[in-house]
Amino acid sequence: EMKDLPTMTPKFLKIVDQVCEQCHKDFAPDEVEEQVREHILQDLETFIRRHIEGAHLKLFGSSKNGFGFKQSDLDICMVLEGQDTAMGLDCIGIILSLARALGKHSGLKNIIPIITAKVPIVKFCHVKTGLEGDISLYNRLGLHNTELLASYASIDPRVRQLCYTMKVFTKVCDIGDASRGSLSSYAYTLMVLFYLQQREPPVIPVLQEIYDGQTKPEVLVEGWNVYFFKDLKDLPRRWPSYGQNRESVGELWLGLLRFYTEQFDFKERVICVRQKDTLSPFQKQWTSKYITIEDPFDLHHNLGGGLSRRMINFIMKAFINGRRVFGTPAKAFPPEYPDKMEYF
Ligand code: CTP
Ligand code: MG
Number of H helices and number of E strands within the chain? Predict the structure, then answer.
């Protein structure tokens, strides 16, 4: 069926299945590694509370969303007791005193406060594990989108397998580093989730559109509605398509590469996981951008907004190549992960 590609064979499709399953198995942290993260968090909180009264730390990002790698950074959000929002706080001052305090912790190195960025953070490296981390203040939407992604991850094992495959793919192709002008892992995860919602029948629902009654409940955080359906054990009753998609993970992966290389109309559509209805870049006034990815809660945030034209071409080429490599039955496949996989 694949245009200009040799016919897929059942045998090769099985190999693609195995590659996708293996990406998850090879790179997901095991239970002990998860506990180590929690332990570091606890230790940091105890230490910080000796310097900053009432400080609480929460893990978010890939340590908690179900799509973490063994070497993923620790994304930490700090809040202060009795203080609901960052309003009225001297965030830069707090970040600087946090950095000063962490400087006295013997288990950490490379402590760098970054106060010029949109969100001030302190970066650090945990010496014993080599894990990097950053602490931000009151990133409440981050906590909620982490929970949303974790919910999608828990609906069907193929969700995690595909998101890991995507992450490995973007690292190998060098298109997965937001700090170097590419898309973030978070953005690629949203691309996978969107594709799985669009699949016919869909693999996952739109959790933000499942609710009782006529109108969507409103749970406001930082001015945005963070409501989504959380009672997942009730999903089979609440979502008619539950369990209907029986494609193998390899079929879904090949389908994803085809979707983003020849089916999805980037000019006319926004990658948007919060609703099933199509959304156009025109509606969002994001017409000057070729790749538009709407954050599920912060609807002003286009995750593709920072991409240069060059980078967009580079990303699109990687997907086209990926589709050729994965879609061509070959004897020596898969190749070993390249050396640089050891670094993440
Ligand atoms: N985040 C966000 N908006 C962005 C980037 C990140 O809300 N534009 C939030 C997401 O909750 C994301 C978290 O910050 O999960 C951490 O971002 P990052 O460390 O870049 O990605 P991870 O999802 O943690 O993936 P990785 O394993 O690569 O660290
Ligand atoms: Mg992270």
Answer: 10, 9
Closest-CA residue, ligand 1 atom 12, reads 61
The question of ipTM being above 0.90 is answered as yes
Is pLDDT above 50 for 182? yes
Total residue count of the chain as it appears in this document = 344
Q: Which pTM does this prediction carry? A: 0.96
- Rounded to a whole number of angstroms, the CA Rg of the chain reads 21
Partners of 135 in the β-ladder: 76, 122
CA of 132 to the centre of ligand 2 (A): 9
Residue 167 CA, closest ligand 1 atom number? 28
Q: Could you give the strand order of the β-sheet that contains 108-114, starting from the edge strand earlier in sequence?
A: 55-60, 74-80, 132-137, 121-126, 108-114
CA 201 to ligand 2 center in whole angstroms: 31
pLDDT, tens only, 73-119: 999 999 999 999 999 999 999 999 999 999 999 999 999 999 998 88
Q: Are 146 and 64 in contact (CB under 8 A)?
A: yes
Place of tokens 């920072």: 306
CA of 241 to the centre of ligand 2 (A): 32
Which tokens is 106 given? 């013997």
Q: In the numeric block, which tokens belong to residue 27?
A: 């790179």
